[in-house]
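Researcher: Quick one. two chains, 228 residues in total.
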Amino acid sequence: EPEVTQTPSHQVTQMGQEVILRCVPISNHLYFYWYRQILGQKVEFLVSFYNNEISEKSEIFDDQFSVERPDGSNFTLKIRSTKLEDSAMYFCASRKTGGRGGYTFGSGTRLTVV
Amino acid sequence: AQTVTQSQPEMSVQEAETVTLSCTYDTSESDYYLFWYKQPPSRQMILVIRQEAYKQQNATENRFSVNFQKAAKSFSLKISDSQLGDAAMYFCAYLSYNNNDMRFGAGTRLTVKP
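Model:
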């Protein structure tokens, strides 16, 4: 079964550093998402991406964050100047056009900011 | 804004028994999707079951079924013949037809006792 692949599975970074989280969505999917889950809390929407641009973003997704689809296969989340409170699991998801029920999540990247 | 409420932070069930996890949501929309996701200790988000609001018939997937009460805005998950591998966090989620961000409940931690 097709999968959404996320790398790395775990990243440790120092406060103030920049990190890039990588995702490879399912190849025939056209909508891409990033979600965040702080330990012990609910999963929160960050951003959706379609047709090479952001289609929606939450209030969490401020200027510290950016997304990119640099090469037609990867979908990245960049976090600039990381803060301790950015420590969380970050999930990438994708879906087919017209398939609202067809969300597929990746296995997540655990980001630890120290 | 749509909200999803899971009123049971923790539930426990004996192996081979049946357990029901509760979920309610608040929306003014008539068309939407509802989901149950399972998150094992690996923290991957695994789709268990989904329901389209326009369908009156309750969705079923093997041992998993839902009781969808649209008027009451209730979407409970029933797990029959519980297995040790069912132990996980379970998240209820809502997805509007009109936007992209999936809203999650706070989760229910299910323990399965042998």
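The mean pLDDT of chain B is 93.
Researcher: Thanks, that's what I needed.
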